[in-house]
Amino acid sequence: MSALKQPTIRVVAIIAEGVPESDTKQMIAYAKSNNKVVIGPATVGGIQAGAFKIGDTAGTIDNIIQCKLYRPGSVGFVTKSGGMSNELHNTIACATDGIYEGIAIGGDVFPGSTLSDHVLRFNNIPQVKMIVVLGEHGGRDEYSLVEALKQGKINKPVVAWVKSQVQLGHAGAMNGGEMESVQAKNQALKDAGVVVPTSYEALEGAIKETFQKLVEEGKITPVKEVPPPQLPEDLSTAIKKGKVRVPTHIISTISDERGMSVEQRYAGVLMSTLVEEGYGVGDVVLAIARICIMMCADHGPCASGAHNSIVAASAGKDLISSLVSGLLTIGPRFGGAIDDAARYFKDAYDRGLAPSEFMEDMKKKGIRVPGIGHRVKRGDKRVELLQRYARENFPSVEYVEYAVQVETYTLSKANNLILNIDGVIASLFLDLLNGTGMFTKQEIDDIVEIGYLNGLFVLARSTGLIGHTSDQKRLKQPLYCHPWEDVLYTK
Ligand SMILES: *[C@@H]1O[C@H](CO)[C@@H](O)[C@H](O)[C@H]1NC(C)=O
């Protein structure tokens, strides 16, 4: 009743059995005066083929496909008995181009909507070309259909049969009496112009004949067969069968922690293997990366990153915040020159520019060459060590040598224009990427482009920044930097 009173709900189907008749009568009265429809109580529901079904009507998807209920046909069908509706779905599918809509009104004495209500409704649906009715002995519902026919309210062909043997003892089938006998009902329907076969077994033939007559008369163009829509398989079942993969949100080529009990792997090697067999950090990180990390770990407290971390720590910030405030300064003036140096050196060397041409070109563009120049003058120990490592271990050192030639040229201009640590790491990694033969030209360009090499500096400098942060926190001294260099150095 609450559902019926909702302004947006027009049809209510009641599957429940045993609804008190007085309640049903109230609902019927309300529905009638408000232009709404009640299907049931005690109905299995209904189906609009290819569109919608109520409850368990028509059963499994296999049955729906078998009975062609996945697309609309030309037949409107109404029955009292839900138990018989599946049977008739199948019969109609065999005899015609299929059902447009099928309704089971339910077996109660006072159905919310009657056989004739639905027949009249079907009569107004243009897609419905003929109507099939399956009645039941007992009740008087079929007589209201006879009335409607006699009054000429129905102009579409109706095929009907009133069945005597009821599978389930419907309340509506229990009233006796001559008028309500099966023969009387079938006779009355026949007299009113309905196609009534001689037996239930002849029903299919009668439906088929009626349908074909309409086709011949041009009143029905049988609907075109369409392939049933493929229903997607249940995901969990399909995954179990190994038929599908769910899309990956994150792709990692370096480490792996799939599954609950699976141990992490680095490049396919179990983490425990690395620990048990005594491998060090250097085996996890590439040897050359390890050296770079060692060499870039710190630069003393004056460098931008260290300075920021110390200031943040002295302001009472936690370790992570202090570390991050230092890392945020990494960029073109602090550490972050590695990628830019790699870009410019690579571009110049690949284009075959002589060191002098390269430098003049940059000068013309007004770009300071990243990787060249430092406050300290010649003889940065780290630069020497890295170059020696490359010469001893790399298959080719073309970029390193080019960087050295560039340095020779710049030193002839000013004695502080040395190849700095950023410049040497940049050229070293260019040689490494090319020398391993594991990367295509495009991949090398991508690696340089994405800022990967600055990552080395981030990794290395984090160690130093954590050191400075903890040191400052241990000292517990507020920092007054006037001038900051003096304060920092004495600390
Ligand atoms: C890249 O490596 C190959 C093989 O080691 C070498 O022949 C080639 O000269 C290298 N190119 C550059 C630009 O370093």
UniProtKB/TrEMBL annotation:
Classify the main location: cytoplasm
- The record's top EC class is transferase
Q: Where is the ATP-citrate synthase/succinyl-CoA ligase C-terminal domain?
A: 79-195
* Compartments in which it is found: Cytoplasm
Q: What is its EC number?
A: 2.3.3.8
- GO biological-process terms attached to the record: acetyl-CoA biosynthetic process; fatty acid biosynthetic process
Provide a GO CC annotation, any one.
cytosol
Q: Which GO terms describe its molecular function?
A: ATP binding; ATP citrate synthase activity; metal ion binding
The protein's UniProt keywords, in alphabetical order, are: ATP-binding, Cytoplasm, Lipid biosynthesis, Lipid metabolism, Magnesium, Metal-binding, Nucleotide-binding, Transferase
Q: How does it assemble?
A: Heterooctamer of 4 alpha and 4 beta chains.
Name recorded for this polypeptide: ATP citrate synthase
Q: Which organism is it from?
A: Capsicum annuum
